[in-house]
Amino acid sequence: MSDLASRPRLLLRRLHQVMAGPGSAQERLERLTTVIAQNMVAEVCSVYLVRAGEILELFATEGLKKEAVNKTRLRFGEGLVGLVAQRALPLNVQEASSHPRYVYREETGEEDYHSFLGVPIIRHDKVLGVLVVQNVKQREYTSEEEEALLTVAMVLAELVGGGELVDPAEMSNGLTQSGLPLSLKGQKMADGIAMGIAVFHEGRVEVTRFVAENVDDEKARLLEALNTMRAQIDKMIAAPEIGMAGEHHDILETFKMFAYDRGWQQRIFDSIEAGLTAEAAVERVQQQNRRRMIATPDPYLRERLADLDGLANRLLRTLAGRSDSEVLEGQSIIFARNMGPAELLDYDREKLCGIVLAEGTSTSHVAILARAMGIPLIGRCTDAAAHVNAGDKVIVDGDTGQVLVRPSDDICDTYRESIELKREQAAQFRAERHLPTVTRDGVRVELFMNAGLQSDMMHLESLGADGVGLFRTEFQFMVSATLPRLEAQRELYAAILDIAGDKPVTFRTLDVGGDKAVPFLPHEEEENPAMGWRAIRIALDRPVLLRYQLRALMMAAVGRTLSIMFPMVADVSEFRAARKIALKEWNRFEKLGAERPAKLEIGTMLEVPSLAWQLEPLLKDVDFVSIGTNDLMQFFFASDRSNPRLIDRYDLLSPAVLNFIHMVVEKCDKANVPVTLCGEMAGRPLEAMALIGLGLRRLSISPMTIGPVRRMIRSLDLQRIEDYIVAELHSPAHSLRASLYNYAYDHDVDL
Ligand code: PEP
Ligand code: MG
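That is the input. Now the predicted structure with phosphoenolpyruvate docked in place:
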């Protein structure tokens, strides 16, 4: 074991002395490489720094030939050093030359050295360089050595980031082009359009003191800051606007659990013990978490780690004595790498009008909250930090997933009009909510809404939906760190039914697994998660989970109608097995003499094509069918619904799809089984027109689309569209979109 790993505190002191000592930055850097090499018992220690254009240049070395300094250059991704920088992760190899990415640079004389350990030098999430140690002997560096070198790299970042060695503008790769308008692409995670001034999320506090003068003092500071921060979070949860239930509350409860996590606290204490200040220790542990976060394919774990990241930022702010709420000047668009749910709630809602994240997923807590709060959010916008300056004017188009930076006045005017128009339209749609959803020739079409959050339920009344056609129950499970207790499940379902009043609600049982990972189920990486162990497959393999959920639903719906359906049923026997479990639970209530719902309706989602070929037996058993075109279409066309390259490849308005739906609807009608369509397609007026033409009379759509679809229905002559579309069903066209559009135009259908 090297000296470095066993006595990090001593080494940090020595490094600190060198850094604070005399000489130019370059001289101090050279001295540092010598100290590190000695302590690491390594023959080589080198520092590569980032120059403009993602080039890594050797700046100082102990052990390699000195003439290579300022000469050896590697691109990001080139050689082992380039790989460390590109992935921003350590690389530990016993025999460097046998690594597939190894490149040999003659001027360095490195052929004599075999083992290689490289770690990124990171500051403010940017890779500033790479720190490498090498040994003649083939050896694998221990994980303690790797950790220790990462700690050293963090301290080095202080010197490197100071700007004396490389111009800071070069280090940011000269990417920020102030002045020029540009458009960046991301993924839309919460709809809507917003215009405002760019504000960088000040989650991160710059750590300026790295090496502890007195370890006990640092520990005391940490403890005090932890206590203050925990008290703030407790207060936040108790605030009246958060309420006692609903997902805001669940998310914050989970956040609170992390704030009190002993393991996290211990790791920070360990880093202080190793010689870091409280701030540096928090940052160090945060870096470790971030490494795990980047490396894990598990979306659930990533989300948990993102919460921890937010917590670390909050703790750093507390240590710096900064207030817990962020002050915004005017209408602001917040830019952040990622954000925890509590950080979002810290902002003044009146001034926060949009969010852009470099990371994020549509099921991340911040995205769920943003949707619930009506704040447009674009995620996966990786270029934003490099191209946007604080104070830039920005438009967030959450409908298209675009971020317009420094837009011209013309563009601003257009968007302003569009925002105004949307506002007016929304008001008009609200005013029309009581108008009957009836075609011109007097046929009623029921318009239900899809929901997944308690906060979605307010739209039921404000938009005049006929009920909830699909309540996705998985959100409650995804935002909670542990399996939601029976009582918590019951509470949520009862609250939903209470808000719905007389309007019907169809609950879909848990659709988790695949990319909707939850902590209480084993999560193995799957090649095709959408086609993997998910939904009903999990429910049937883990019937206790399903039974509990059914029990909670039955308890919640005492005296009322309970309508449930199962997701991803591929085979009629799966439906029968799930229904059997439901009926067993139903009978259990009777046996116990417990109160139960007045009526139980059990249906199925039809989102796997195979089920459509078993309708004869299926329709004898089900109370209703709900066609889920989101999943159905990806299996129908063998085309991944999340692959951007395939988004426009196949059209839902193709004769093949329309024939398929027509066939299902006809059979359901013949069997007198109600059929609903609850995929996103039904929320688009043109598609809804086609679906109604195919015989559908029940659509379940996202709340914001209810107004436009209702208006379309009220302008439609049903008999005509039916005749038209049925005649087109056997067309050889790739899509009927254009002809349906022309039809709508010719017949004054309000799209
Ligand atoms: C569907 O697949 O169409 C559906 C409604 O379910 P989800 O979008 O939740 O998978
Ligand atoms: Mg689905």
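The first helix runs from residue 3 to 6.
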